[in-house]
Amino acid sequence: MAAVLAPTFDPAAQVVIEGDSLPLSYDGTLEALNPAGAYSWKPVDSLHEGWNRRTIHLTASSPAYLVLAYTFYPGWLATIDNQPTHLWRANYTLMAVLVEPGSHEVVLTYRPWWLTVGTAISCLFLLISILLALPLRATKRKKIV
After folding, report:
1. Spans in the chain with pLDDT lower than 70
2. Are residues 68 and 6 in the same domain?
3. Are residues 26 and 83 in the same domain?
């Protein structure tokens, strides 16, 4: 937090990444899209947003962190060109992924563990309810006939 609040920090040209064994770093920061230090970032080529999915197309000229203006929160998963990748916490509250030079498709998907467990439990109880209701329904038909 101290690095992000420092008067010399420029969020348009720098990123502070939290984590161990950072692939691109010096003193915890990296020039956003240009390690040489020049201010030359560019927006992504395209962005498609859904309620739990973000698809970003971009072209990077050098290895860089793509900083995403989405709150870092457990449950988000990232892929680059359909390959799982690490999602970094950036600038204290945002998300970032490391991209190599070239054109890429970055996909963020929100898939928390508790949603999967909750869905499985709900389906199990629905199945049990149906199985318990079947004998009752068969009994009612016999009485009517």
Report:
1. 20-43, 136-145
2. yes
3. yes
Q: Is 130 found in the same domain as 80?
A: no
What is the DSSP secondary structure assignment for residue 86, as one 8-state letter? Answer: P
Look at residue 18 in the predicted model and tell me its pLDDT: 79
Domain count, the chain: 2
The model carries a pTM of 0.64
- The candidate with the shortest Cα–Cα distance to 15, out of 57, 25, 48, is 25
Both tokens assigned to 61: 């000229």
Contacts of 44 (CB under 8 A, 6+ apart): 56, 57, 58, 66
* 37 and 104 belong to one structural domain: yes
Q: Do 86 and 45 have their domain in common? A: yes
Instruction: Enter the tokens of residue 115.
Output: 């949603």
**Can you point out the beta strands (E) in 19-131?**
29-31, 46-49, 53-60, 64-71, 76-80, 83-85, 88-90, 94-99, 102-110
In angstroms, the CA 20 to CA 86 distance is: 12
Q: Domain range holding 13?
A: 2-111
- Amino acid in the structure at residue 59: T
Q: What is the pLDDT of residues 75-90, one digit of tens each?
A: 999 999 999 999 988 8
